[in-house]
UniProtKB/TrEMBL annotation:
InterPro entries: Cation_antiport_E (IPR002758). GO terms for cellular component: membrane. The keyword Membrane applies. It comes from the Bacteria. GO terms for molecular function: monoatomic cation transmembrane transporter activity. The keyword Transmembrane helix applies. The lineage of its organism: Bacteria, Bacillati, Cyanobacteriota, Cyanophyceae, Pleurocapsales. The chain crosses the membrane at residues 12-36. Keywords: Membrane, Transmembrane, Transmembrane helix. This is Multisubunit sodium/proton antiporter, MrpE subunit. It comes from Stanieria cyanosphaera (strain ATCC 29371 / PCC 7437). It holds the Pfam family MNHE.
Amino acid sequence: MIGYLNLILRLTIWFLLTSDLSLANIIIGVAIALLLPRSYTSPSAIRDWLRALWEIIVAIPQAYFEALEIIFRPHNYEDITLERVKPQRTPGLIFLDIFLITFTPKTIVLKYHEEGWYEVHRVRRRQKRDSQQ
C-alpha cells in the first residue's frame, strides 16, 4: 500500500511540474515514477500518510486565513527557528512535511538538516517580549 502512495506522490509532483495531462506525458510520468530509486528504509505506516494528508487538507483554509491576515495586518518581524523532524519519517513524508510548512504564507523551510531538523523562516506581527528588552 505504501508503494502505491509513493507512486501517487511522484506522479502528482510530475504533473504539477509539467502541467500537462496528455497521454504521452502520463506515460513518461509513470515511467519516471517507476524508474526512480526507492528507499529501503523502514516503511512508514498508513496512519502516518493519512495524518500527513489530513494536515494538508487542514492547511488549505489556514493558508487563506494567513494570506488575508498578512494583507490587512502587516507582519514586520521575522525569525528563523529549528523544528524537529518527526521520528522515523521516510523521504516521502519528509517532503510532505516541508510542503506543508512552506504552503502557508507565514512560513517557509530554508533548509533540511540531515540530523533531523528543519530550518524554518517565519514572519510575525510583533516582536517577542524577550527580544524587546
